[in-house]
C-alpha cells in the first residue's frame, strides 16, 4: 500500500512540476511589464505576462511554465516602444539570464540553461572561426600567395572542427536542429576570383537548411535565413539590376517551401519586408506571380488589402489626386502640364522646421524651371496661411484644413512635416526624400 501511495505522490508531483524562466535587466527599462510569447513561424502566440520588480538599477522578472509546455523557440518582450525582445529556446529546463536592455542582442548571458548556453557558445565560436576564414579569402584577392592558401586550409579545418564538436555535443537536444541548419558551405580550395566566390555563396546558401523541419518551421530561423538571402546576399548597385536580382532571389526562396501553408507564409513574409522599404514594384510582383496563384484558402485577402493600402504612397505609384482652387479656377494635380517634374511639399505654418526649410527651398528653386512646386499647407484655419503663401510667388498653394485629419494628408500618410514627394511628368512618385539635403541632391539631378 505504501508503495502505491509513494508512486501516486511521485506521479502527482511530476504532473504539476513547473519550469522557471528568470530574467535580470540592468539598467532597468521604463516598462513595468514583460510579455512571454511562443514563436511559431511568423506568428507570436501570447503565453503570459508578469511584472518587473525593480531594485536600484536592476529589474527582475520571472515566469513559470507547466510541465506540458511545448519545447521550442520563445520570445520575451520587455519594451513595446523600442520593440525590445530576447529570443531563446525552451526544452523542459529552468532558464536564468541577464542582459542590458539597451543592447540585448550582444549582452544576453544565460546563467542557467544547457540548451541556450550551448547555442550561444556555438554562435560565438563559429562566427570567429568563419570570420578568420573569410578574412583570408578577402586578403587573397588583394595579395594572392601560397602562404595565404595554406593558412586558408588550416583555418577551414578549424571551422569544420567547431561544427563537428557542436553537432556531437548537441545531439538529442533542441538546438541541434539550429546548429546543423546554421552550417555554411566553404570551398575546400581558396577561390581565385571574387565572382566565383560570390556565385558559390549564393548557390550553396541553403545547403544545410531543411525547410521541412518542423522545429525550424516553428521559429524565426527560416525567415531570418530567407531575409539574409534575398536582401543581403543578393545585392546589386544598379537599380534595374537590383530589381531583377530581388525577383530571382525571391523565386529561389519561395521554391524552398514545400507545403502550401508554409509557402504562403514565406510569400506573405517577403511581401511585408518589401512593403516596409516601400518597394511597390517588388510587392506587386510578389502578389501577381505568387500570392494570387496560391489556392484561395491560402490567400489572406485582408492582408493583401492592408499592404496595398499602405503602398498607395510609394515609389512607382501614381500620386493620388489633389484638387484645389487657384485664381477662381479648379486645378487638379493630374492635369498640371507645365513641368517636366513636380515637387509636392506638405507643411504647416505651425511647424518650426517648416518655417525654416520651406523658405530655404523657395530660394533654392529659383531658376530651376523644370520643376513645378505644389505647396500643401496643413492648417487649422486660413488665417496665417493667407499671408504666408504670398512670400512664395510662382508656386501652387493648396490649403488643407483639418491639419493631421485632412483627407489628403491622410491619403498621403503624412505623419510629420515637412514631407517631400518628387513626381515625374506623369505624376508618378519617383522619390520620397527624407531630408532637405536629399531633396536638393535629387532636384539638382532633375534640373
Give a topology summary.
Blueprint: H1 2-15, E1 18-25, E2 33-40, E3 43-51, E4 53-55, E5 58-66, E6 72-79, E7 84-90, E8 95-99, H2 104-107, E9 109-112, H3 114-142, H4 146-169, H5 175-182, H6 194-203, H7 214-217, H8 221-233, H9 239-256, H10 260-276, H11 280-289, H12 301-310, E10 323-326, E11 329-332, E12 341-347, H13 352-364, E13 371-379, H14 383-388, E14 396-401, H15 407-411, E15 419-424, E16 429-431, H16 436-446
Parallel strand pairs: 1-8, 12-13, 13-14
Antiparallel strand pairs: 1-5, 2-3, 2-6, 4-5, 6-7, 8-9, 10-11, 12-15, 15-16
What does this structure look like?
It is a single chain. The strands form four sheets. Strands 4-5-1-8-9 form a five-stranded mixed beta sheet. A five-stranded mixed beta sheet has the order 14-13-12-15-16. A four-stranded antiparallel beta sheet has the order 3-2-6-7, with no helix packed on it. The N and C termini lie far apart (96 Å). A hairpin with a 2-residue loop joins β2 and β3 (43-51). With 447 residues, it is of the alpha+beta class. Helices cover 44% and strands 22% of the residues. It is globular, with a radius of gyration of 28 Å.
Number of helices: 16
Outline the biggest β-sheet: 5 strands, mixed
- Going across the biggest sheet, name each strand in turn: 4-5-1-8-9
Shape category: globular
Low-confidence parts: 6-15
The beta-strand count equals 16
Q: How many discrete domains?
A: 3
Helical proportion, percent range: 40-55%
- Rg: 28 Å
Tell me the β content.
Answer: 15-25%
Integer average pLDDT: 91
Structural class: alpha+beta
* Alpha-carbon distance between the two ends: 96 Å
Amino acid at each position: 500500500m505504501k508503495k502505491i501511495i509513494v508512486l501516486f505522490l511521485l506521479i502527482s508531483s511530476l504532473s504539476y512540476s513547473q519550469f522557471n524562466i528568470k530574467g535580470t535587466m540592468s539598467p532597468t527599462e521604463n516598462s513595468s511589464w514583460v510579455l512571454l510569447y511562443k514563436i511559431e513561424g511568423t506568428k507570436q502566440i501570447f503565453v503570459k505576462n508578469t511584472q518587473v520588480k525593480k531594485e536600484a538599477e536592476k529589474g527582475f522578472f520571472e515566469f513559470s511554465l507547466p510541465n506540458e509546455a511545448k519545447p521550442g523557440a520563445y520570445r520575451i518582450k520587455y519594451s513595446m516602444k523600442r520593440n525590445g525582445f530576447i529570443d531563446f529556446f525552451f526544452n523542459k529546463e529552468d532558464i536564468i539570464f541577464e542582459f542590458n536592455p539597451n543592447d540585448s542582442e550582444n549582452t544576453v548571458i544565460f546563467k542557467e540553461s544547457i540548451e541556450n548556453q550551448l547555442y550561444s557558445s556555438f554562435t560565438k565560436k563559429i562566427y570567429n572561426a568563419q570570420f578568420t576564414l573569410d578574412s583570408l579569402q578577402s586578403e587573397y584577392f588583394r595579395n594572392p600567395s601560397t602562404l595565404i592558401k595554406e593558412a586558408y586550409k588550416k583555418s577551414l579545418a578549424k571551422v569544420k572542427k567547431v561544427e563537428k564538436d557542436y553537432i556531437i555535443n548537441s545531439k538529442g537536444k533542441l538546438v541541434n536542429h539550429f546548429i546543423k541548419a546554421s552550417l555554411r558551405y566553404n570551398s575546400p580550395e581558396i577561390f581565385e576570383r571574387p565572382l566565383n566566390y560570390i556565385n558559390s555563396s549564393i548557390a550553396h546558401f541553403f545547403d544545410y537548411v531543411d525547410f521541412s523541419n518542423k522545429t525550424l518551421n516553428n521559429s524565426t530561423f527560416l525567415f531570418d535565413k530567407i531575409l539574409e538571402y534575398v536582401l543581403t546576399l543578393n545585392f546589386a548597385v544598379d537599380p534595374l539590376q537590383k530589381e531583377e536580382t530581388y525577383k530571382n532571389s525571391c523565386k529561389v526562396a519561395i521554391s524552398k517551401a514545400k507545403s502550401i501553408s508554409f509557402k504562403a507564409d514565406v510569400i506573405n513574409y517577403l511581401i511585408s519586408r518589401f512593403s516596409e522599404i516601400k518597394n511597390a514594384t517588388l510587392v506587386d510582383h510578389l502578389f501577381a506571380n505568387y500570392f494570387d496563384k496560391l489556392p484561395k484558402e491560402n490567400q489572406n485577402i485582408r492582408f493583401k488589402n492592408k499592404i496595398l493600402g499602405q503602398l498607395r504612397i510609394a515609389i512607382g505609384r501614381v500620386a493620388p489626386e489633389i484638387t484645389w482652387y487657384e485664381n477662381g479656377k479648379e486645378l487638379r494635380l493630374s492635369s498640371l502640364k507645365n513641368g517636366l517634374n513636380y515637387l509636392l511639399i506638405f507643411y504647416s505654418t505651425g511647424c518650426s522646421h517648416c518655417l525654416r526649410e520651406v523658405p530655404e527651398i523657395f530660394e533654392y528653386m529659383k531658376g530651376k524651371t523644370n520643376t513645378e512646386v505644389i505647396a500643401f499647407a496643413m492648417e487649422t484655419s486660413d488665417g496665417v496661411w493667407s499671408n504666408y503663401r504670398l512670400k512664395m510667388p510662382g508656386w501652387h498653394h493648396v490649403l488643407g484644413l483639418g491639419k493631421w485629419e485632412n483627407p489628403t494628408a491622410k491619403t498621403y500618410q503624412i505623419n510629420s512635416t515637412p514631407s517631400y514627394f518628387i513626381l515625374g511628368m506623369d505624376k508618378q512618385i519617383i522619390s520620397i526624400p527624407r531630408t532637405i539635403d536629399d531633396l536638393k541632391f535629387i532636384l539638382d539631378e532633375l534640373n
